[in-house]
Description:
The chain is an alpha/beta fold. It has helices spanning 3-18, 29-32, 41-48, 50-55, 59-62, 67-70, 72-88, 93-104, 119-122, 196-215, 232-239, 269-289; strands spanning 21-26, 109-113, 130-132, 135-142, 151-152, 160-161, 166-167, 181-185, 219-224, 246-251, 263-265. The strands form three sheets. Strands 3-2-1-9-10-11 form a six-stranded parallel sheet, sandwiched between helices. Helix 1 (3-18) packs across helix 12 (269-289) and helix 8 packs across helix 12 (269-289). The longest helix is centred in the last third of the chain and has 21 residues, at 269-289. 40% of the residues are buried. The mean pLDDT is 94.
Amino acid sequence: MEKDTGDKVKRAAEVITAADALLITAGAGMGVDSGLSDFRGTQGFWRAYFAIAKLGLAFEEMASPAWFKKNPHLAWAFYGHRLHLYRKTTPHQGFNQLFRIGLAKPHGYFVFTSNVDGQFQRAGFAPERIVECHGSIHHFQCVASCNDEIWDAYSETVKIDGSSFHALEPLPKCRRCPTLARPNILMFGDWSWLSHRMETQQHRFAGWLNGLAQSSAKLAVIELGAGSAIPTVRNNSERVLENIEGTLIRINPREHDVPSGQIGLPFGAAEGIRIICDCAGNLAGERNHKPKRQ
């Protein structure tokens, strides 16, 4: 590790140790170390979904609500496969390390993520401490928006014919009308996404931030795997520090540039968390073994 990077790691460890509260912000790169794809670039998406590659569709084209009307069996093959994948994926160790850090803070933690995979909940993070700004694949809504209900999809199943990559009947249906259901995810060109579940999460998050500001608490923001192509997470990481004393630690193997005074580290999510935690442990050991003045 280069000296400059090592110095930044040490500073990041000191920031997290001294903080009164922890905000975890995460993009698609957070799940890569759990074995999930971040669909980086068209080729990366096509490697994950060969059947869609044969159709020549990019992720931005496939992740559209229009498919639930044009070809619902293809739409539910895509989202049904992802639902099954996320249900069986085990979050990497970095989730647990951050969870323990957050629990130990006087003002606790919050998570802000653009990921729809529910990995933070699977790792034990409290649902009321999470903002899913693009929604969740584990919740459904009506395709036709016949009502404003968003329901938990824990009992929903989608069977897929792997050879044709088509979902089999019966497809998930709305609870109130004969129309299909769809994931409660903000898709591209999506004007029918029901956002009130996310807005409730945002309201709780805003209350937490307001409490930090009023108590003059020091905040550590650790951002993981959030790119600049869709900068929602990166923008939020920086914006929260406009009114609260704190430091941003941006962990990203490619895009770790930060505003002046903040910390950027060129690691993947799991590696970055591990290195910082190891450093924090070493610093704590040094303090505990430092001879006391007689």
